[in-house]
Design goal:
With 360 residues, the protein is α/β, with parallel strands linked by helices. The chain is 41% helix and 20% strand. The strands form three sheets. An eight-stranded parallel β-sheet has the order 8-7-6-5-4-3-10-9. A five-stranded mixed β-sheet has the order 11-12-13-14-15, sandwiched between helices. A two-stranded antiparallel sheet has the order 1-2. Bound molecules: iron/sulfur cluster (SF4). Iron/sulfur cluster binds next to loops. The site of iron/sulfur cluster has 12 residues, from loops.
Length: 360
C-alpha cells in the first residue's frame, strides 16, 4: 500500500512532543471547562490524554486562569498550550506557570509586548503557534483582498509569523483556519509552498459532532494525504474527547498513526438477524470498552454468518452474528459460539486476553 509522502518542515518541541521534521503527526484538543475551575479542567486534561491526546490547549483569559494553569501543571505531565489573546502579560504568566507552548494571534498584541513574550519563550524553550482564523483577519488585509480570500488568510498568517520572528521567536508553528473546507485546504496548500514552518491543521468552528467530523475528515484528510500537516485538531461542538477520537481515526485511516483499536462493523442488510440498531449498539459498547487501548488491534463485528466470517477471520477478534448466537473468532480461528447477550463481554474478554490492562 502506498504511504503518504510528508513534506519536510522544521521541528519544534512542545514538552515531550515533537512537531514537524518528520515527527509523528500529533493530535491536539482544547479544554472546554472554565480554566479557573482548576479541578474540572485538570479532570478534562486527564480524560483527553487518556484518550490519546498529545497536546492540550487551555484558554487563559485572565490571571486567575494562569494561576490555575500553574496548579494543573503540578498534576499532569501533559504538553500544555496556553491560548492568549490581547494581553501579552498573560502569556508571560502562563510561561511562568509552566505552559509548554503559547498560541497567539500576533496581530492583536503590541510589538513591545511581543518582544517581551518572545524573550520569555526563548529563555524557556517555549514555541509559539501563530494562529490565524478567518474571523480575525486585520481589516486592512481584508480590504486589500476585497474580503475573505485564501490570499488574505495566507498573508495574515505570514504577517503574523514575521511579527513574532522580528520579536525574536525562533520556534514557530502556523495555523490558518477557515470555516470553509475548500478555503482551508487551499490556504494550507499555498502556505506550505511558502514556508517550511510546521503546520497545525484544523477547521475553525467545524460544527456539531456529525457534520464537524465529516467536514474535518474531508479537509484534514485531503491535506494529510497530500503530505501537508504536522499536528491536527478536530474542533467539534461537543465532548473534546470525541475530537481526539476523530483526529486519531483520521490519522489511522491514512496510515499516519499506528496503534489503537480499529473497529470494523458491517452496515447490516436483510441477512442480519439482530437488526441494525442492535448491531450498532454492540459496536458502540465495544468502542467504549476499548477506548483506552493504545496497542494496535482490529475488531470485526459482522451481522451474519454468510459474509461475516470472512471479515471476522481477518481481525484479531471477530464476531459473525447468527440467529440468537454468534461465532467468535480470535486471530483467524473460530473459538466458540456465544449467546447474544454475551456478545460485548465475549469480545472485550478476548481483547483483554490479547492486550492485558497493564499493557493497554
Ligand atoms: S456481513 Fe452479512 S449482514 Fe452484514 S452487510 Fe454483509 S451480508 Fe449483510
Amino acid at each position: 500500500m502506498p504511504g503518504v509522502e510528508r513534506r519536510m518542515t522544521r521541528q519544534v518541541k512542545v514538552r515531550n512532543v515533537l512537531i514537524g521534521g518528520g515527527a509523528p503527526i500529533s493530535v491536539q484538543s482544547m479544554t472546554k471547562t472554565d480554566t479557573r475551575d482548576r479541578e474540572a479542567t485538570l479532570a478534562q486534561v486527564l480524560r483527553l490524554t487518556e484518550a490519546g491526546c498529545d497536546i492540550v490547549r487551555l484558554a487563559i483569559p485572565d490571571e486567575d486562569a494562569a494561576r490555575s494553569l500553574a496548579w494543573i501543571r503540578k498534576h499532569t505531565d501533559a504538553a500544555l498550550v496556553a491560548d492568549i489573546h490581547f494581553d501579552y502579560r498573560l502569556g508571560l504568566l502562563a510561561i511562568e506557570s509552566g505552559a509548554d507552548k503559547i498560541r497567539v494571534n500576533p496581530g492583536n498584541i503590541p510589538q513591545r509586548g511581543l518582544k517581551e513574550l518572545a524573550a520569555a519563550c526563548r529563555a524557556n524553550g517555549v514555541p509559539v503557534r501563530v494562529g490565524v482564523n478567518s474571523g480575525s483577519i486585520a481589516r486592512e488585509i481584508l480590504s486589500r483582498h476585497g474580503g475573505l480570500t485564501v490570499a488574505a488568510l495566507v498573508e495574515s498568517a505570514l504577517q503574523g509569523v514575521r511579527l513574532v520572528e522580528d520579536a525574536g521567536v525562533t520556534d514557530i508553528v502556523i495555523s490558518l483556519k477557515a470555516t470553509d473546507p475548500l478555503m482551508t485546504i487551499q490556504a494550507y496548500r499555498e502556505i506550505s509552498n511558502l514556508t517550511d514552518r510546521p503546520l497545525h491543521l484544523g477547521l475553525t468552528e467545524s460544527g456539531a459532532p456529525r457534520s464537524g467530523t465529516v467536514r474535518s475528515a474531508v479537509t484534514l484528510g485531503v491535506l494529510l494525504a497530500g503530505g501537508i500537516g504536522d499536528t491536527i485538531r478536530v474542533s467539534l461542538t461537543g465532548d473534546p474527547v470525541e475530537e481526539v477520537r476523530v483526529g486519531l481515526a483520521i490519522l489511522r485511516s491514512l496510515g499516519l498513526r499506528e496503534g489503537g483499536v480499529e473497529i470494523i462493523s458491517c452496515p447490516t442488510c436483510g441477512r442480519c438477524s439482530i437488526g441494525l440498531d442492535r448491531l450498532a449498539g454492540i459496536a458502540s459498547e465495544v468502542e467504549r470498552g476499548v477506548s483506552g487501548i493504545r496497542a494496535p488491534l482490529k475488531i470485526a463485528i459482522m451481522g451474519c454468518e454468510v459474509n461475516g466470517p470472512g471479515e471476522a477471520r481477518e481481525a484479531d477478534v471477530g464476531l459473525a452474528v447468527g440467529r440468537g448466537r454468534g461465532l467468535l473468532f480470535v486471530r483467524g480461528k473460530p473459538v466458540r459460539q456465544v449467546d447474544e447477550k454475551e456478545f460485548v463481554k465475549a469480545i472485550l474478554d478476548e481483547v483483554r486476553r490479547i492486550v492485558p490492562p497493564e499493557e493497554g
